[in-house]
């Protein structure tokens, strides 16, 4: 009997970490369902993949119609769901509009929750794995990333709850927490990189280390050593994080960069 090829579904696969994870999955012998809003970007990802079946689904995960198309593409047996699609909102909370906040929550949390719910039957058939790509901002809440941090904290909580809830079906759950990464979304916060002293990772490095942890069955993955250190500091000495980030948020350089960004948004 010929072994069945495992199937992975990755949202936000048109660029960045999603694209890099698709490459890692293909190298590991997975067939793929790649999901994104832009067909051309998905096609670019598909060109980079090694042998394997690839299905492209151009869909908006925040809509019922989009999720229905994704669920249909997954079929009745799914080995891995990677909730990677995300939206970044940057600025003071008082400067964020209703729609910007709603879209950030809708993409980063609500859509991931609803898509996971819809795919549980297929994941259960394969005793598969859910991978939620979060952020270090879901462990350490950064000023001026309020809405984004809140959604990633929630996604981390969703991951923990699902791990305990779905274990009876043989479904495993992994939460990945990369730091700031060089992706198209970086343009949204480029003005804050220097004031906050952020170190940026390449998506390929993040995906390579994340995939190794996924294959090892890890529950939580910090792709870099520094992230593990910060996780320990946040857990045992959170006041140090408060002091450092409050200071950095209040520096003249950070304020000037943020004010310039807000003026550009309004223009």
Structure description:
- This protein is of the alpha/beta class.
- It has a single domain, classed as NAD(P)-binding Rossmann-like Domain (Rossmann fold, 3-Layer(aba) Sandwich).
- The chain has ten helices and seven strands.
- The chain has a seven-stranded parallel beta sheet with strand order 3-2-1-4-5-6-7, with helices on both faces.
- Helix 4 links the parallel strand 4 and strand 5.
- Helix 1 packs across helix 7, helix 3 packs parallel to helix 4 and helix 4 packs parallel to helix 5.
- The protein is globular.
- The model has no long low-confidence stretch (mean pLDDT 90).
Summarize the structure.
This protein has 267 residues and is an alpha/beta fold. 55% of the residues lie in helices and 12% in strands.
Q: Round the Cα radius of gyration to an integer and report it.
A: 19 Å
Content of β-strand:
5-15%
For the largest sheet, list the strands in their spatial order: 3-2-1-4-5-6-7
- The H/E string reads EHEHEHEHEHEHHEHHH
The quaternary organization reads as: single chain
Question: What are the main properties of this structure?
Answer:
single chain, about 270 residues, alpha/beta, Rossmann fold, seven-stranded parallel β-sheet, 10 helices
Task: Please specify the SSE layout and strand pairing.
Elements: E1 7-11, H1 16-27, E2 31-36, H2 39-47, E3 54-58, H3 64-74, E4 80-83, H4 98-126, E5 129-133, H5 146-166, E6 172-176, H6 186-196, H7 203-215, E7 220-221, H8 225-236, H9 238-250, H10 252-266
Parallel strand pairs: 1-2, 1-4, 2-3, 4-5, 5-6, 6-7
Helix pairs in contact: 1-7, 3-4, 4-5, 6-10, 8-9
